[in-house]
Amino acid sequence: MRKYINDRFPHFLHGADYNPEQWIHSKEIWDKDMELMKKANCNEMTVGIFSWEALEPEEGKFDFSFLDEIIDKIYKNGGRVVLATPSGARPRWLAEKYPEVLRVREDGSRERFGGRHNHCYTSPVYREKVRIINTKLAERYGKHPAVIAWHISNEYYGECYCDMCEHEFREFLRKRYDNDIEKLNHAYWSYFWSHKYNSFEEIEFPGEHGETTIHGLNLDFRRFVSYQTTDFMNAEIEAIRSVCPDIPVTTNMMPGTYPTNYYEMAQKLDVISWDSYPDWHNQNQLGEACHTAFWHEFFRSLKNRPFMLMESAPGLVNWKAYNKLKRPGMDRLASLQAVAHGSDTVQYFQWRKSRGSVEKFHGAVVDHVGTDETRVFKAVQATGATLKAIDEVAGSMPKVRVAIIYDWENRWALGDAQGFALHDKKYMPTCLQYYRPFWKRGIAVDIVSAHGDFKKYDLVIAPMLYMTDHDTIHRITEYVKNGGNFYGTYMLGMVDDTDLCYLGGYPAENLKEVFGIWNEEIDTLYPEERVKIVADGKEYEGVDYSERIHVRGAKTLAVYDSEFYAGMPALTVNHYGKGKAYYQAFRDTGALWEDMAAVLLQEIGINDALECELPKGVCVHKREADGVEYLFVQNYSGEKINELSLGKEYFDMEAQTVTKTVALDEFDVKVLKSVI
Ligand code: GLA
Ligand code: ZN
After folding, report:
1. Most ligand 1 atoms within 8 A of CB, residue of 359, 360, 361, 365 to mutate
2. What pLDDT was estimated at residue 676?
């Protein structure tokens, strides 16, 4: 069953953020844009993101003329529109008249008008003004045939420390702890250093000049900020949906955003979209490709359906330390990489380069020269041509049997933990290391939270799942009991969801039975240190962390061969119920995991996407629908591949030929279809 972004338009979208209001005094540009849109093989424009000033120049006085005109124009020229709500940046009058909408910083100072993405998510005035403009937009454009998705605000981010937010924080805690301050005191272990609270009114935001030492409080603050941001977004969605229930809503997310738990934010959205700006052509191009793929997998997994690549840079960005041009081919390869992992759109920031202000040198489909004669324009055109040729891929999905847990709350708790390697626990790079062998083999992986549905998968990997709440312990137990393969690592099951340590030995509670081990202590190594590990006569190296674990029923697969823990187990497996629970007690360099992943995949019976030897830097990812497989053969190596043998016949969707081999240029990608 194919799932489309919008069933009314079962095709790929190819387009960009478009800000025609910047050119309102030179409307010939608008006509030129329409001509260029068609030439670029684009069929979509995202409009209205920062248009509040143009739409409501004075409080309560609305002027939709520019949007009316531009949406009609786009539609007449064969395009579709993703329409944004404008709350990402507010007009000056709003801040002048209602300063409460401006964010307060941690030091208590209120921001002045300026910038964007910096409003208070609690402010009733801001919420009301946003509700009004959103409702008007929904009423006016909800039935327009051009509009196929709502783009809610833009890149929600950050926190506000105003009194209203602090009040809401207390209410949030009241609810969480059943209005019982003693429950909170227990969870916060607040007898420590005499930090006990006598009432909810005494609670303040954690912050540099106040409380920073109560980890439970820090964690709840993170939860609150995320909750409040999501609640604000949900209110925006509500305003739209109450008028226009049948157009899907999305908001553009960012990779790895710290303050917002995207698993929660995803719930009310119909479709996930994200903004991808990798550092292509850096010292580690393959690492960058794998890292980007991880995020594509993550965003697809949020809703288990095709997602939108809402923003990507044509050519280059302007906000990195070094703003390097994408090399020929890279635009198309990066775009098709997103598609390979489940994106049904390729969209750019931005369509036309702005003339002034802070983004005037950011890449755009149309440069200041204003023509179709640029290298970047032609690259976009080429990507568009590919998307047209492979349009039938839209709506298909990869088949997924493996999941990696990347959990937001765990990330917050680990980030705050005082111990281990103090400044960087390397949670994200570790998750990435576990993803890498799958990426190389073209095996799709879902990235899920600790509250994900494990039952769907044959293998679940939980790197550094330090915070493991009771419910997760229960679900891990059930999953393994019923035949699942669960791979846990050092730090598993150390604290509960209030960041209180589990008593009675790690990993927590029943996990000791499930894994058949007891983890007595963890050693943090200096960065240059290595410990030796031996498995099956082969030597590996451990870095950063090594735990001293004791076997209690598990079978040892690898042992330490250095330090005072030489001879102790380093990797174990335990048969529990019908399944298996693996425990890796140390951080490896990646070499052991490469080998282990191969063993596990063989045991479970998951094959590589293409069963042939791939040259370094080439990988293949798949989507499937209706019994047909679509293969994306991607070359990140920067070198030509003259002939890659595919092992069997495939249909090259662009060349329209049946072939058993492909040749790939530098940064090239070929899309193949299985021949039944
Ligand atoms: C973000 C924003 C865009 C733009 C781009 C520039 O993703 O959403 O408005 O500023 O960055 O790369
Ligand atoms: Zn606030």
Report:
1. 359
2. 63
